[in-house]
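Posting for a labmate who doesn't have an account.
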Amino acid sequence: MSFRPSLLRLSAGWQWAIGLLVVVGIAGALSKHWWPATQAWVQAAISRQKKPTLLDEHDHGSSGGEHDMHDHGDHGHEHDEASSLELSQQALSNIGLTADYLKPLQLETFKRTISVPAIVVERPGRSRLEVSTPMAGVITHVHAVRGESVQPGSLLFELRITADELVSTQTELLKTIGDLDVEQREIARLEIVTQSGAVSQKTLLERQYAKDKLEVLLSAQKEALRLQGVSERQINDIVQQRKLLRDLKIVAPSPDDHNHDDWHLSSIAVRPASFSKEDHHAEKPEPADGTRQELTPLILEEVLVHKGETVAAGTTLGITTDMSELYIEGRAFEQDIDLITAAATQNWKVSAAFERSGKQTEIVPDLELLYSASGIDLDSRTLRFYVRLPNQIVRSVPSPNGLKFVEWKYRPGQRLQLRVPVEEWSRQIVLPVEAIAQEGAESFLFQQNGTHFDRIPVHVIYRDQSYVVIKNDGSIFPGDVVAWRGAHQMQMALKNKSGGGVDPHAGHNH
């Protein structure tokens, strides 16, 4: 009785197994009809439940040539749509993505820098040039106009000499020259007479001794004129023309060329204070070798006298400035002294960052670090060091009355930041900070893929105010074309596209 129920249960088990095998066989035979639809339904269900991970985005963003051939318009993966953005030409223009900011990545050497506050200053003893009178007198003409641009050698002031000592020295000089002429004529006559024996040789020798004494006296009087401020050329003019120096014409000095005098005899022609470059070349002959030396224009900052004013010897009449080259004075803290010294030892170039109102920060690269102060400022506890800053004219305005006004790009007193390199990294991927968007702990850049931009997560290993260094870990490769600016705007566009709330502070560091 017990054997029969067991046999029935065994038969029922075989029946289920045989039925399952039949169903599987039929399903396999008809798989081409139902399997694609079932697979698509399963994948769609998984995509709705699964949040895209960093690895998934990485795989899509760095899949190489196969991904580049993928058409974004044909696939329907929600993951790709969430990390891909298509921008119109107008949108590209709005965020400044021109051809200059869509460039392939490349490995380069990056110098990590520290930022040091700085200020533009004049070059001591070089930028400021005072125009003074070497002797007392009365101002008869003022040709200079405050603020105008003048060339070295341009006529600025005229005055009539009133210095009694100078007039007396010149008078004695002219008297000595006359006596010397008389003695020379007498010696010439006696040389002829003594040959015939009518006059003794002793008389001729006495005259020659007298001539020697007058020549010594003449040398002493010339030296006295030099001490009173008269130049060698002007002394020669007094001797040759036998005229007293009465009027002075004072001209603009030259920062580097000292071949001309800063003041002239009134009989010497000089250029007026205002003249064009063409006039300057026409009046000044070219050197023998055919080369022309361009003179640096000076700015007449101050005119300190007026017509009819009596001035003493050494009085400053005006102040000119040479702005063609300035210094940047950096002020480093004590803990940065060793870094500044190391940068100077390595001959690394520094960069200057000028903040412009309403404009992008201007970066002036490859500036020469000259020297640092020998001591630390006791009040600010900072070390001052100096960087050479070449300047350039940005505006030149001629006026109808012949005057000329110029404006220089950099001016003393401007504040800026100096970026001093302290460490060098080779073979790095370097981008501007505008190329990186940040959301929480994630950092992204946007790779161009046809008409689309794919968001790629990257590892930022260094960031400063201007640049970021991206780890070369395979998330992005040299040669990939990426957006070098506008990452924050594209990140906001992606969030709007996905329907998420927009964080206005995303991608910014405060």
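Reply:
Got it, the structure tokens are right above this. The radius of gyration is 44 Å.
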